[in-house]
Write a structure and sequence with these properties.
Number of strands: 2
Number of helices: 11
Strand content: under 5%
CATH class of the largest domain: Mainly Alpha
Shape: globular
Length: 280
């Protein structure tokens, strides 16, 4: 996209954000003009409540102040159930990266095998078609029963949900490598291992990276729900705990951070996808 187009898109994004915040601010302004018995009682007490009832939903200013409060000390520990939002995010990111890394170690080799061998493709396909549609959270009770540790069970669920997009994309990318390149490698009597690393892998890398990008997005979605189920630590547990405390401002701060971290993970893999893609 030309530089002028990027600038216009950035300006439009800023305007959309300003409009959104303005609507949010207007929606949370105190109501006025309707007198109730509570208003009359508030007048007798000299309270400002008679001027209008404040919305229960926090305003943009409330959320900004709460976010600044978190930013000043994100890594505090005041007890088992009272830890900074930075620590909770770190727990979640660590679980996602660990489970995602395990999925990479399994999905890419198996995807290579499936993509290069029609026999193995036909053998693995029934298992993939049966296991792929199962919700990752459906595995959580079984994981808790067998592993008996909530954190490790969450990592197992991340592994499961990250596995299928990477495996399928790897198999597709490997099977779609141009026949001409494989024929040249065969003519030159290149060894299978060398062919896999020097011909197939570079050609399939963009498709593999796309699968990894999809997987990390799904993993980040699933970890929040998993942590809500098992509790203990993590940004999902933080959201659920703040709901129990009826702190909507903290919930909105956590939602914003979840979105920002998810965008960062996606952008890192998008950059890596561009780095391994052939220039057009």
């Amino acid at each position: 996209m030309p530089r002028s187009g990027r600038a216009a898109a950035a300006i439009l994004s800023c305007l959309m954000f300003v409009v959104f915040v303005a609507i949010w601010h207007m929606a949370t302004l105190p109501t006025a003009g309707v007198q109730t018995a509570d208003d009359e009682y508030a007048k007798l007490l000299g309270s400002n409540a008679a001027k209008g009832q404040k919305s229960a939903f926090p305003s943009p200013k409330d959320v900004a102040l709460k976010m600044w409060e978190h930013a000043k000390d994100p890594f505090f520990v005041r007890g088992t159930n009272d830890q900074g939002i930075g620590i909770q995010l770190a727990y979640s990111v660590g679980r996602v990266l660990f489970g995602f890394g395990l999925a990479v170690l399994v999905a890419i080799p198996v995807g290579f095998l499936i993509g290069m061998s029609p026999l193995f493709y036909r053998a693995f396909d029934p298992f993939i078609q049966v296991l792929k549609p199962i919700s990752p959270l459906a595995w959580m009770p079984l994981a808790l029963f067998t592993i008996k540790d909530s954190a490790t069970s969450s990592i197992f669920v991340i592994f499961i949900c990250s596995l299928w997009p990477m495996l399928i994309n790897t198999a597709f990318g490997v099977s779609a490598v141009r026949r001409e390149w494989l024929n040249v490698a065969r003519t030159l009597e290149v060894s299978p291992l060398r062919k896999a690393f020097q011909v197939v892998l570079p050609a399939a890398a963009p498709t593999i990276m796309t699968g990894m990008r999809i997987s990390v997005g799904i993993a980040w979605l699933v970890i929040v729900a998993a942590e809500m189920l098992v509790g203990g630590t993590g940004i999902g547990y933080f959201v659920w705990n703040e709901w129990n405390n009826l702190s909507i401002s903290n919930i909105l701060c956590a939602i914003l951070l979840i979105g920002l971290v998810g965008m960062l993970l996606d952008q890192i893999l998008a950059w890596l996808t561009q780095a391994v893609s052939y220039p057009e």
